[in-house]
Amino acid sequence: MTAIDIPGYVIRREVGVGGMASVYLALQTSLDREVALKVMAPALAADPTFSKRFMQEARMLASLAHPNIVQVYDVGVTQAQLNYFSMQYLSGGDFAQRVRMGLSDKDLLRILEGIANALGYAHHRGYVHRDVAPGNILFDVSDTPLLTDFGIARAFSQSARITSAGISIGTSHYMSPEQARGIDVDARSDLYGLGVLTWFGLTGKPPYEGADGFAVSYAHVFEPIPRLPAGLEHWQSLIDKALAKDPAQRYQDAEEFIEALGTIEPRSAATGSESQDAPTRVIQREALSNALKAQEAPTRIGVLPTLDESIVANKTQAVAGAVAAKRSWLPWALAAAGVLLIGSVGYVLIAGRDKKPGIVSEPAAATAARVSPSAAVQDERKTALAATVPEAPRGDMQMPLEPAESGAAEAPELFAEELDLASIPTVVDPVVELVRQARADLAGSRLTNPPRFNAFERFSLALRINADSKPAKQGVLDTARAYVDLADKSWASGNLAEFSGFLDKAQEVAGSMPDGAELVGEIGKRRKSEVDKLLVEAGAAVERMKSAEARTAFEKAAVLDKNNKAARDGLKLVDRIGKPGYVFQDRIGDRKAPEMVLVSSSLAFARRETTRGDFGIWWRVAGSRQFSGKGPSCRDRESIFRSSRKRDWQSADITQDDSHPVVCVSFGEAVAYAEWLSKETGYRYRLPTAAEWEQQAGKSPAASCSSANLADAAYKKAFDSRAGADCDDGFAATAPAGRFPAVAGVFDLDGNVREWVAACGKAAALSAGCREHGLRGRGWMSTADKDALMMSDSYSEDVALNTLGFRLVREIGQ
Question: Which residues are catalytic?
Answer without folding.
Answer: 131
